[in-house]
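Notes to self after the call with IL:
- keep both proteins in one doc
- input above output, always
- annotate only the second one for now

Protein 1:
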Amino acid sequence: MDILEIIKTRRNIKIFKLDPINPDKLHLWLEAAAMAPNHRMTEPWEVYIVGPETRAKLNHKTNFGDAPVVLAILSKHGATAIETEENALATACFVQNFNLAAWAEGVGTFWSSMGGNPKNREILGVPDGYDVIGVFGVGYPDETREPKQRTPIQNKLKQLL
């Protein structure tokens, strides 16, 4: 697949096959994710591989679609409010790189925002000074849904003179 096809076909996966993810592939996708743009090379992301005990405590309503891997992606706060915001944006780019690299090899993700909940932060052991950008199920899709209708991009374009 070329990059445009990868971007256009990637979906948030809700149900996964139980097939394991090759740890070397996971590492490769994380390395690709780390090529994300980040202001002043802060590299603010941290990746937690969530094991079965922690995953059970999180009590996600769908158990992350039975994904074989669950990751929590964190963003470190900066020295200023602006740097904290830049770090969160850079970490979102990290996530997108990861999602696209995995999708290129037939592996999908389920992005949940549940990590921002104070109880889940405690379960994950998130230290002060970090935001949880998301908790992700990662695996081979058992179901891929059709894309939802998007607003035509021409409706979002503004020309400044």
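Protein 2 (the one to annotate):
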Amino acid sequence: MKAKHSGPSGAFIGASWLALFIGTLTYSIGLWNATMALNEKGYYFTLLLYGLFAAISLQKSVRDKLEDIPVTGLYFGICWISIAAALLLLAAGLWNATLTSSEKGFYAMSYLLSLFASVAVQKNVRDLALFKPEFAETETTDLSAFK
């Protein structure tokens, strides 16, 4: 018997959004309360925004390739470089920061939680669009609306 796919469950959608909210909020609160200079706070906040964008963009590009939606090699490469750069810049910043080990761990873990959750949220958004009734009724495989 063939299993019927109905998209992501409400629990997974909620958990993904909650993880994204918790990760970004705790990272931001940590920066707000930190005793570092304002330019350092700006550096770490910019890394969060850059990392979130890079993770979402990479997830979308990988998914597009799996679904035979054209993705240029240049853009795909830039996505990988961007996520690697965001992680390396965070690691270098934390390595050289005058923070305690527990603070460094806090920033690293809340950052990684945020990136993972952003990928899960993006996946859910895309899956929900695919499983809407108006898409299920059509027999076309035109996915140009998802580009």
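Annotation: Residues 136-140 have pLDDT under 50 and may be disordered. The longest helix spans residues 101-130.
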